[in-house]
Amino acid sequence: MAKLILKSLLAVLALSALAVVAGRSLWPGTPALTVLAYAALLGVAVLFGVIMCAIVGGHWNQFTLRAGGTDAAWMKWGGEPPGLTALRQDPARSTPTQP
After folding, report:
1. Best CA proximity match to 38, nearest among 61, 50, 53, 22
2. What is the pLDDT of residues 2-14, one digit of tens each?
3. What SS3 string covers 27-38?
């Protein structure tokens, strides 16, 4: 776990340095610390967006399963997965239900 954190911090530092270099060439009169702050704010905003997409997607998947969907991607396919209706109609292949 420590290696993952170290690698993540190193990647963030490298991307921050790249953002400062690119920002300094785009806005030559802006101090490096200001460009770094803007890059950090942009990184936090992107991270927040990714986390929110994961949370909303997870809630949507749970809602889908609770509402009777076969799987969480049923809206993409427009119906049951191939072969599932035949599997449900064949009594020899169905599994017994627990009381």
Report:
1. 22
2. 887 788 778 877 8
3. CCCCCHHHHHHH
| Straight-line distance from the first to the last Cα atom of the chain, in angstroms, rounded to the nearest whole number | 44
CB atoms within 10 A of CB 12: 12
Please state, in angstroms and as integers, the Cα–Cα distance from residue 36 to each residue in 10, 40, 46, following that order.
Answer: 15, 6, 15
Using an 8 Å Cβ cutoff, are 70 and 84 in contact?
A: yes
In 3D, which of 17, 53, 51, 11 has the Cα closest to residue 35?
A: 17
Q: Cα separation of 91 and 87, whole Å?
A: 8
Residue partners of 23: CB distance under 8 A and separation at least 6: 30, 32, 35, 36, 38, 39
- Among 2-11, 57-66, 76-85, the least confident range: 76-85
Report domain extents, the chain: 13-61
Helices 2-26 and 32-66: angle between axes, nearest 10 degrees:
130
